[in-house]
Amino acid sequence: MKICFTADQREGLESILSYHFGHCPYYIIVEVEGNRVKDVKSMPNPLVDEHNPGELPAFMREQGVDTIITGGMGPRAQQYFEDYGIRAVTGAYGRVRDVLEEFLHRRISAEESRLAGSREVAVRETGESDEVERLKKENVDLRRQLADLKSRLTKIEEKLEK
To answer: Please, are residues 67 and 1 in contact by the beta-carbon 8 Å criterion?
Structure first.
């Protein structure tokens, strides 16, 4: 199975999940067999600046992706993925490694994300001000901090379960 994660960095499993699939700078494609990671591929989003509806789902199908996991995605994009037979999981956050574990252990699923509805978080505009750029950088830093906290919490929970 191939799972694609939207990411803010090109750091493989250590990347922070991006909140919008279409405008994320990178994709992390993880191939798994059972619950074991077989391969990890980091790639830039080839259509980050501009794309027509359906182009990114078609690109993911060409990559052999079975599931895409992201922070947010509109209903139209979700329908394109469904038409291609690709499961879309939205509402995820944290470090790719942690989100992968949640998915593999069925703590998040495409059905749950469909019931919760999609959350459009990122909006791209042309001619953005310096303040908007500063806020975007601050947002990325806060997501990184949130991912670190989530990793720590997961480790504490694992220790408590033993």
So the answer is: yes
Specify which residues 68 forms β-bridges with: 4, 88
For residue 111, the one-letter residue type is: E
CA gap 82, 87 in Å, rounded: 6
Per-residue pLDDT of 99-135, as tens digits, reads 999 899 887 766 544 444 433 333 333 344 555 665 6
Domains of the chain, first to last: 2-161 (3.30.420.130)
Name the amino acid, one letter, at 151.
S
Measure CA 46 to chain center. 16
- pTM over 0.70, yes/no: yes
Q: Which two tokens stand for residue 83?
A: 């038409």
Tokens describing residue 49: 């600046």
CA distance 24 to 31: 20
Q: What is the DSSP letter of 84?
A: T
Phi, psi of 28 (to 5 degrees): -115, 115
| Number of other CB atoms surrounding residue 117 within 10 Å | 10
Q: Report angle CA 55, 57, 60 to the nearest 5 degrees.
A: 110
